[in-house]
Amino acid sequence: MARRAPELHPRLIMDPEIHPIAQRVVSAILTAITDGSLLDDDPLPSSRSLAESHGISRSSVVQAYETLAGLGVVRSVHGSGTTVCPGARSLLDSGAAPSPAPTSEPDSTKRTLNLTVPADMHEAALDQREWNRAWRRAIAPDCSRSGPQDLIAALHKHLRSFRGMTFAPEQVVLRPSIGSVVADIVHSAELRGQGIVVEDPGYPRIQRHFIDHGCRVRCLPVDEHGLRIDMLTGTDRAVHVTPARQWPTGVTMSEQRRRELLDWSVRTGGLIIENDLDAEFVFGRAPEPTLFSMAPPGAQVVYLGSPAKLLSSELAVVWLITNPGFHRRAEDLAPVSDFPARALAHFISSGALYRHRNRALSLCQERRDALLKQLTKVVPEVQALGEPSGTEIVLQLPDGADELAVQMQLERSGYQVSALGDFAMRPRHHALLLHYGALTPSAARGFAQCLQRALAKSCARSAS
């Protein structure tokens, strides 16, 4: 499959104090033009690319580009992207360009609720006393073992109990980031220059990490049973999957697809990279068994996990459970910090993680149920896709609705959401994607009402 060439972004300095976010983008681009970082006819990144690189919504970037076009400093040509207008710097230096109009409602007291994804679990579920206790234990003098050694021992028990996994402690690799784990996998499996399959839609960061390490990434679609295993080819050397709960659609990979994927690995020697990040957020039942634990002799499976979603991405701890033939890189190439590892080990071993997960699941279910109840009442034409799980939800929009226009209107109303298409190479649904874990039950009705108004405006514009 042909892929887009990577974009080279101009150096844009975003001032976090400027609100709304669209105005922040406008200010950054105007500054880049006046200081010479952007010259006449220079291309600007696509709205999707700029949004991903700065962790903001695509609708904010689209609003900013529209504002800049109105000022006469950029121009957009369908099929050719957005470029700096000739003479833009002179126009700005002379003061002839009008001041940019506010890009949102003038009420300065309005705060935008960030419901974009990916996101960590809401801190309301965390018992701060137990978390602080784990950190106090981590800094107490104890030279018997290092923090990583403590964490490996805790993970060995936790994954055996929670996920039914059997492995030796020496099969565990701890790293501070997904990127460093990808480097380990590419090195061990000799994947540089080789084909690797990822899910579509899926994690953009995972795709970028594999591309950065020299892999040829191919995106295969996900349906109601999970990844389309029948579309794998002889040139695919590895597959990255999220079988327990596909991110972001919420689909659980069927048992048949799991067997087909494991059979593929046995037949071809291909590597399965099982990302289990969302298994913690399966509601009402135990998550399906891991591919790692189901693997028959000859199947090559490595298991990837992290506390990022359940606790915090700032912990900087990722674990990889390897197969026996895995060629490890030196630990000191990307070591895990001792204190965070020890704190997490105490949090797991004390049972605090189990209690925290139960609170997080209850909180998520409560907020998901409240949101769906209000959507059913206020805007029944919007359908929730996927299974009741996870901290994000896919909302299928009715025919005729433009998800980007709906996104922009919601942001003007104080709700920043993602579009499912932002995470897909070949978007198949007109749908929004939002982190409902940050939406309290009392705020759910207000969101549903704003979504109803945004849909009405979008559909009216499409009909005109």
Automatic annotation (TrEMBL):
Region annotation (Disordered) ranges: 91-112
Keyword DNA-binding included in the entry's annotation: yes
Name of protein: PLP-dependent aminotransferase family protein
UniProt-listed PANTHER family: HTH-TYPE TRANSCRIPTIONAL REGULATORY PROTEIN GABR
Organism: Arachnia propionica
Pfam families associated with the record: Aminotran_1_2, GntR
Family: In the C-terminal section; belongs to the class-I pyridoxal-phosphate-dependent aminotransferase family.
Xref: InterPro entries: Aminotransferase_I/II_large, HTH_trans_reg/aminotransferase, PyrdxlP-dep_Trfase, PyrdxlP-dep_Trfase_major, Tscrpt_reg_HTH_GntR, WH-like_DNA-bd_sf, WH_DNA-bd_sf
GO molecular function annotation: DNA binding; DNA-binding transcription factor activity; pyridoxal phosphate binding; transaminase activity
Keyword Transcription regulation: yes
HTH gntR-type domain segment(s): 19-87
Keywords, alphabetical: Aminotransferase, DNA-binding, Pyridoxal phosphate, Transcription, Transcription regulation, Transferase
